[in-house]
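Fold Annotation — chain and its backbone
Next Lines — sequence and tokenised fold

***
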Amino acid sequence: MMKRILFTVLLFSVCSLASTPSLYAQSRHKVYREIWTKSNCFNTILSMELVGKEEIDLLKIMDENENRIKFSSASDAMTYLNKYGWNLESTSTTTYDKDYLMSFWVISKEVEKDDEIMDGINLMPKKGSKKTLPVQKQK
């Protein structure tokens, strides 16, 4: 009788653990970054950065064939980043020195590990460097 009770309790415990896959799986979490663009009164992009723990010049991103991607606006950059899991959260714009426009786009991405944050972003080599950062494929 005691063996049946122990077996039933053990079976129930195993079934309970099996039905909760998130118990052992890593949970996904959201990370946030900002796209900052600075343009002049003629709406020419002067600078565009992806800002977070690292600052990335979005005007120096390359595609898989190592060709520079030319973004004409923050919308172009957002469309590109959306392919790699980034979503738009909010935007704001301000002017300064009468001739310049600053735009701020808050974007987010769900990841399991922080090393997935930069998936798909391939940077041009820095001056003096011969190698580029490898393109990380989306998983």
Notes: Residues 36 and 104 are 5 Å apart (CA to CA). Helices lie at 2-18, 74-82.
